[in-house]
């Protein structure tokens, strides 16, 4: 008789293997716009099934899966949104993230089918010509990610004191969401969103919608090749440094340092890895997202960014978490 292992159940392994099923539940939940329906009225599974022309048994099982995934609650057979769903997944809400979820479904998820092959073929410093400008960081993709970036802008406004600063240079600022969030919270601030021309054009649209066109300017250019705009005392690099390889980032930080006035600040924001490179979980997994996109580099840990900033001339380098799992590193000239 074989000796029984101390581990009696493979349940943890099975849950890991079927993690993709939870993703698909979320994707369909958003695609069917169920959060908005439950925002308007709590319903039974049968009532929702009739509205969406879905078999009632299939609908009941699907809604139960949504409960397991933390998207819904149920009481006496009546289903309702959780607070998380109500805040982020009801279409029309300020921080609606349905576009971001659909982006994961349509753009990101299919790439993970060939992770083994991507791991075998990825080479540091080399990049797919369609990445990131045309696919992951292009104008259409930026618009999908606007609300999540806006959420980070509001959070950054609380995490760092911008009262003594005048102008933010938002490098690779996409739709200008971070600048919008900062300027809406600080009347003393203005901003320049500096990104590729097509992204700057998209930023102009969002800035106009926010009625901040007198305080936020969108400028088109190539961060890696062109001179940086003048007259700024804050340089913001949000979700940017992980896009470039090490040498490009080092050159960019040196260029920023030379342009900043005395006591100016450089802020790096993103899903930065902790020192052991094992957390946050989202950041660890998104290193593989970078590889799937054939990006030239993967996310780095805090110590690496600190060393780059120090070598560029910056001092008083600090970091903290400000909107889990987002890390903030800031350094002064």
Provide an overview of this structure:
The protein is α/β, with parallel strands linked by helices. 45% of the residues lie in helices and 15% in strands. It is built from 15 helices and nine strands. Strands 5-4-3-6-7-9-8 form a seven-stranded mixed β-sheet, sandwiched between helices. Helix 4 crosses helix 5 (56-68). The chain is globular. It starts with 10 loop residues before the first helix and ends with a strand. Mean pLDDT is 92; it is low at 131-140.
Task: Reconstruct the topology from this structure.
Elements: H1 11-17, H2 19-31, H3 34-40, H4 45-52, H5 56-68, E1 72-75, E2 78-81, H6 83-88, H7 98-108, H8 115-121, H9 139-144, H10 146-159, E3 167-171, H11 177-185, E4 190-195, H12 197-209, E5 216-220, E6 234-238, H13 246-259, E7 265-270, H14 281-292, H15 302-312, E8 315-323, E9 326-332
Parallel strand pairs: 3-4, 3-6, 4-5, 6-7
Antiparallel strand pairs: 1-2, 7-9, 8-9
Helix pairs in contact: 2-7, 4-5, 10-11, 13-15
What CATH first level of the largest domain would be assigned? Alpha Beta
Which class best fits the helix and strand makeup?
alpha/beta
Which blocks of ≥5 consecutive residues have pLDDT under 50? 131-140
Domain module count: 2
What order do the strands of the largest sheet run in, or round the barrel if closed? 5-4-3-6-7-9-8
Describe the global form. globular
Distance between the termini: 70 Å
Sketch the topology as an H/E string, one letter per element: HHHHHEEHHHHHEHEHEEHEHHEE
Helical residues, percent: 40-55%
């Amino acid at each position: 008789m074989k000796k029984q292992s101390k581990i009696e159940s493979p349940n943890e392994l099975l849950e890991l293997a079927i993690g993709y099923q939870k993703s698909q539940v979320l994707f369909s939940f958003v695609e069917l716009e169920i959060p908005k329906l439950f925002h308007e009225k709590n319903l039974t599974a049968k009532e929702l099934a009739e509205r969406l022309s879905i078999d009632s048994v299939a609908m009941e099982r699907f809604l139960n899966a949504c409960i397991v995934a933390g998207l819904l609650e149920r009481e006496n057979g009546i289903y309702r949104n959780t607070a998380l769903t109500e805040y982020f997944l009801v279409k029309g809400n300020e921080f609606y993230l349905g576009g971001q979820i659909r982006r994961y479904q349509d753009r990101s998820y299919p790439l993970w089918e060939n992770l083994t092959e991507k791991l075998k073929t990825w080479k540091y410093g080399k990049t797919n010509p369609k990445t990131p400008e045309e696919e992951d960081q292009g104008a259409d993709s930026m618009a999908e990610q606007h609300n999540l970036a806006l959420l980070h802008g509001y959070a950054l406004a609380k995490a760092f004191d911008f009262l003594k600063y005048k102008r933010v240079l938002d490098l690779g600022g996409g739709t200008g969401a971070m600048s919008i969030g900062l300027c809406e919270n600080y009347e003393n601030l203005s901003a320049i969103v500096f990104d590729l021309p097509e992204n700057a054009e998209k930023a102009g649209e969002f800035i106009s919608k926010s009625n901040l066109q007198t305080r936020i300017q969108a400028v088109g250019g190539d961060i890696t090749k062109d001179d940086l705009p003048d007259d700024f005392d804050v340089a913001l690099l949000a979700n940017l440094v992980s896009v470039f390889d090490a040498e490009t980032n080092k050159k960019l930080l040196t260029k920023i340092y030379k342009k900043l006035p005395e006591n100016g600040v450089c802020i790096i924001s993103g899903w930065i890895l902790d020192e052991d490179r094992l957390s946050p979980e989202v950041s660890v997994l998104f290193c593989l997202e970078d590889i799937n996109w054939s990006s030239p580099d993967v996310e780095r840990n805090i110590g690496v960014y600190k060393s780059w900033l120090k070598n560029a001339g910056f001092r008083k380098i600090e970091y903290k978490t400000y909107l889990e799992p987002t890390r903030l590193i800031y350094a002064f000239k």
